[in-house]
Amino acid sequence: MWDKIEVAVEKCAKNEMKQKPDPAHLGFGKYFTDHMFRMTWSREEGWHDAKICPYQNFSMDPAALVFHYAQAIFEGMKAFKNEDGQLYFFRPEKNFERMNDSAQRMCMPRFPVDQVIRALKALVYLERDWVPTEYGSALYMRPTMIAAQPALGVQPADLYYFYVILTPVGAYYKEGFNPTKIYVSDEYTRAAKGGVGNVKAAGNYAASIYMSEIAKKEGYSQVLWLDAKEHRYVEEVGTSNIFFKFKNELVTPELSGSILPGITRDSTLKLADSFGVKAVERPVSIDEVIAGAESGDLEEAFATGTAAVISPIGELFFKGKSYIVNENKVGALSERLYTELQEIQHGEREDPFKWVMKVN
Ligand code: COI
Predict the structure, then answer these.
(1) Could you tell me the pTM of the whole model?
(2) Which residue, 174, 268, 321, 336, shows the most beta carbons closer than 10 Å to its own?
(3) What is the fold, at CATH topology level, of the domain defined by 180-345?
(4) How far, in Å, is the centroid of ligand 1 from the Cα of 96?
């Protein structure tokens, strides 16, 4: 379907290379590596001009469609390195398939997954000295696609840029693996059915900032989003999916059309199942969660995401009242999922699901 995309390689001069950050203080998305991948799509030529090149600014027309109508999609993926220097990707084809789904929904061009993975392997190998080895850290990869054609009518563009930038990261939340405090929003919502909540459109994140700032001012790290129609069913938490461990089952909201189909969400369901934990996808109301927190039937709650990995939740604030989960401690299931997932991602545990892909 696609012609082979030739990838040119243009390396930084040694004296232009950046100083690498202290792996103990990476934070999230603060430092960017020396090189990036970029390619262009035009209606006449399709995907072309693919290259690994020095990390660089774009020069863009202020009328570019992305600046006006937010035709932008992205992904979050990670590369890992073990002590022997072996590099791994975690289920990269899943992220790129999802990105192609996002592209389709947003009327943007699809791209050849295999060829982009091949280019990404070359880029990450080139940047191998930037990949941290410590558990809890990784090289975060941010594939992005934007509409670059200058035009003011609301329309699909004739020109798109696809690029991948890389950043060594530690934990997404300042709490690290300690339980976070979550504000349940019963006023603002993230996405409605029929909208774009089930794809990774950049605008979804822009729209979430207002409520996140309210939550932060009140001392909460993230927002728990309820459904847009009834404000009753749990959808997502912050930028992640959410799980509740009740006494008899592990539950995550079913993919109702407004929830992002997370790769870590899917991996969590499969891992939990392999532990013999009954893991189900079904609607879960905030009333059920609150009742569980009060009775003790709710044993653990946690967020899952590429950035967040497994992030335990210790407190939920809903309608002016605080509910503590698992005495604000990390639960045994969260701990086991976090550890085993990281071990698989670093190539240090058997990978029965064939999730990891060797880069070098
Ligand atoms: C990820 O988990 O990788 C995401 O894309 C969320 C991001 C906004 C940090």
Answers:
(1) 0.97
(2) 268
(3) D-amino Acid Aminotransferase; Chain A, domain 2 (3.20.10)
(4) 14
